[in-house]
Amino acid sequence: MEYTVKRSDRARSMRLSVLADGAVVVTVPKYFGQSSIESIDRFIAKYSEWIDAKVQKMKGRTVIRVPRSDIARLKREALAYAQRRCAHYAARYGFTYKKISIRAQKTRWGSCSKTGNLSFNYKIMVLPEAVREAIVVHEICHLGVFDHSKKFWDLVSHEVPDHKVVRAQLRKTAFIFY
Fold first, then answer.
1. Ranges assigned E (strand) in 3-132
2. d(Cα 124, Cα 82) in Å, to the nearest integer?
3. 36 contact partners, CB below 8 Å, separation of at least 6
4. Which of 3, 77, 136, 172 would give a disulfide with 24, using CB separation of 3.0 to 4.6 Å?
5. What pLDDT was estimated at residue 58?
6. Per-residue pLDDT tens for 77-127?
7. What's the CATH number of domain 66-177, 2.60.40.2380, 3.90.1170.20, 3.30.2010.10, 3.30.70.1130?
């Protein structure tokens, strides 16, 4: 099995990770010498079933690579985009919101507070346009229905009739920052 060894000053023991693109990385303490390759190989062999399961899970994902140097620009673009599109959809639905913010969230694409504040992940800017629009519509609809009931999804489907397809696409999207 192919893997990359990463040495770390902070690592106290070996650890495994499978990246979004299926690459296997073994992080080892800095003091691990070349003679420790056998122990790394044993470690990999011991967890080979776990590794295989994770690699299989990563197959079929859309991997988007983002240079870290682009993050500040993406945040600016995301704010401008969200302001423009939220104004559009809020007017269409007849809803009002208070404030829009852009965040670096690991597990959410957007959120809507009970007080009417909308928040979006800056990563929406590297998603396809239709997916981006669906995220904005989703959060705008929370201004009217603050749960994920049938009434909420009916509201979303006025603008995004294929919201189930879009949600499935989002679950299969992963990011790698370099």
1. 4-8, 15-18, 24-29, 62-66, 100-103, 110-112, 118-121
2. 9
3. 28
4. 3
5. 85
6. 999 999 999 999 999 999 999 999 999 988 899 999 999 999 999 999 999
7. 3.30.2010.10
